[in-house]
Structures are given as structure tokens and as C-alpha cells.
Amino acid sequence: MLARLWRVGLLGLVAVAAVWALWLGRQGHWIAALGGAVALLCLHAWVLAVQFVLMALQNRRDPAPAARWHELLRAWWGEVLVCTRVFGWRQTFCEHALPDEPRVPGRRGIVFIHGYACNRALWLPWFERLRRHGVPYVSVSLEPVFASIDSYVEQVEAAVRRLERATGLAPVLVCHSMGGLVARAWLRWQAPLDQGSPGQGDARAHHVITIGTPHHGTWTASAAGTPNGRQMRRGSTWLRELERSETPERRARFTCFYGHCDSIVFPASVAVLPGAQAHHVRACAHVQLAYEEVVFEAALRWVGADLAGTSALQADTAA
User: Fold this and answer.
1) Alpha-carbon distance 311 to 33, whole Å?
2) Residues 234 and 296 in one domain
3) Do 151 and 293 share a domain, yes or no?
4) Cβ(186)–Cβ(156) under 8 Å?
5) What's the sign of the alpha-carbon dihedral 226, 91, 216, 65?
6) Is position 103 within any domain?
7) Tell me, what's the pLDDT at 103?
8) For the chain, first and last CA: distance in Å?
9) 79 and 143 together in one domain
10) Do residues 184 and 297 both lie within one domain?
């Protein structure tokens, strides 16, 4: 469903840009025609610029290290390029380009959980590299797209069970943005399975890596109208109840990657879960964070894979 929505949106934008160019071009205003068409096709760059300004203002009083102007500029341009590839191609046309690869008995695997308004194609560069390393993986495309976060837990459960059966080992969960909240909701959902044996349900996740996850909500969700968007508002009832359900032992299973140039999840420190390992990544925006080499290497360490001979994940994202 989401891929179809992205295709409709992309084709609609291209159509508007074409109409603009033809209308002004026929009047002889070719510079305005071409300039306006390019500006429309680069609409996401302007939206990102506004988000970066708002993020920089919100981060001024945040305890995370402040971003310098050149870091903000570098992160903005990097995010423009990454979002063009991710939303303009991968998630729109390549959702099923690479299937899951769960059957590597005896090797610990990864369950991938994407974020808001995304699908499994977000992880395509990861899939290519994990295949080279012989690491099994299973991914989800969370549907319905704009439902409650709690409605996704059974999809995560099915993915975890599939990898458990194939490998015999508890997987590592790698989660981008809202996906980290889905993972926490899944751990809470297991509570009935865990009665009488505290911590046993938590052990079904060997470790959880969250990448730009709004653990304490985010400013950008303030005006959200969808159920999952409202749940990600700062101080939401859903987030408070989720926090009350967690133990220090559960949070110790988490590693949180976050950054001061994240233009979706800010102020920056909202992406850090108390009691978890936290790693600040400089000059890196929201979608970019999913492809940082330091994140990939952390995942490989948790699944026990060999780091020798790894190449930059960023290079793979350009493909």
C-alpha cells in the first residue's frame, strides 16, 4: 500500500512540474518554466531546509552537543540526496527487490523494523551487505501505514519467530525511528508470556539497536493526526504508559544512536532511552543515520559477525 501511495505522490509531482514547464514555456518564459519545474521536483529539499531551521532552534537548550553551521549544511545536503534515493526510488519501486534471508542455522540474525511512512526497502543496502557476511535477516513492512503502534506487534512477533525457527537463536532487532517504539511495544506485549519467569520474554531479543527513535516523543509530531503520529507526541499518554511498563534490565538491552542534525526527531536527546547505551553521531540527519557505518558495525558485533573486509555502507546507499 505505501509503495503505491509514494508512486501516486511522485507521479503527481512530476505531472505538476511538467504542466508548469509547458504552460510557461509556451509563453516564451523558458527560464521561469525550467526553474519552477526544478524547484517543484526538489520540493523535499525546501521542506528539509525548514525542518533543519526548526530543529536547530529546538536544539539550542538540549544537552546533546551542539551542531556547527557547517555540520548542519553537510547533514542537510546529505539528507536531500539520501531521501531522493530512498523515497524517490527504493521504497516506491523496490520494496521486494531482495527477499528475506533467514535460513543460516547456527548464525544469529537480525529483524529489521522501519519507521513512520516507510517500508522494508529502507534496509536494502543492509540486505546486500548481510548476504555477503552470511548473516540471516527478516524484515517487516508495517501495515496499515497510519495505525496504532500497538497494532504492529504481531507482525514483529511473526518475524522474530520466523528467524528463531530458522537459526535457533534470539535475533538482534535493528529499528529506525518509530521502529524502535514498535520494538518496545512488542517487548511489553510479551508480558503475559513472561508471568512467573521475569525477563524470559525479554531474552527473545538478544539486543535492540534503535536509530533516531523518538523514545520521549518528538516536536515534529505535535500536529500529527494519525494514531501512530499522536502516540509520538512529546509527553503522550501512550509513551508514559510504555515507560512505566519497562524495567532497567529491559532497557539495558538497548543501544540508541542519535544525532544533533536529526531534523525529524528533536530535540536530540529525546532519542536516548535511559539505561541504554547511547552513541551520538555528528553531522548526520534522520534517514542518513540508518546507513552510518558505525551503526552497521555495531549490528555486526551483536550478531557475532566478522568485521574484517567491511566496506562503507554509505557507498552502498549510492547504488
Assistant:
1) 42
2) yes
3) yes
4) yes
5) negative
6) no
7) 84
8) 25
9) no
10) yes
Q: Rounded to the nearest 10 degrees, what angle do helices 178-189 and 237-244 cross at?
A: 50
Burial (CB count within 10 angstroms: exposed 0-12, middle 13-18, buried 19+), residue 132: exposed
pTM of the model: 0.90
In angstroms, the CA 208 to CA 175 distance is 8
Residue 98 placed within a domain: no
Question: Do both 84 and 120 map to the same domain?
Answer: no
pLDDT at position 51 is: 96
Q: Average pLDDT per run of 10 along the chain, which is 319 residues long?
A: 70 71 71 69 88 96 92 97 93 93 90 97 97 95 96 97 95 98 96 55 94 98 95 97 94 97 97 97 97 97 72 44
The span from the CA of 130 to the CA of 127, in Å, is 5
pLDDT score at 197: 52
Query: Does residue 97 lie within any of the structural domains?
Result: no
Phi, psi for residue 147 in degrees, rounded to 5: -95, 180
Evaluate the omega torsion of the peptide bond into residue 105 and state whether it is cis, within 30 degrees of 0. no
Residues contacting 209, CB < 8 A, separation 6+: 172, 173, 174, 175, 254, 255, 257, 295, 298, 299, 302
The one-letter code for the residue type at 10 is L
Q: Is the dihedral of CA 309, 313, 318, 319 positive or negative?
A: positive
CATH number at residue 134: 3.40.50.1820
Residue 43: the pLDDT is 82
Number of domains making up the chain: 2
pLDDT at 37: 63
For residues 17 and 118, give the distance between their C-alpha atoms in angstroms, rounded to a whole number. Answer: 25
Structural domain boundaries enclosing 43: 2-92
Amino acid identity for residue 45 in this structure: A
| C-alpha pair distances (Å), 42 with each of 10, 72, 119, 316, 318 | 11, 19, 22, 23, 18
Report how far apart, in Å, the C-alpha atoms of 263 and of each of 29, 95, 172, 198, 228 are: 36, 25, 27, 38, 19
238 & 133 share domain: yes
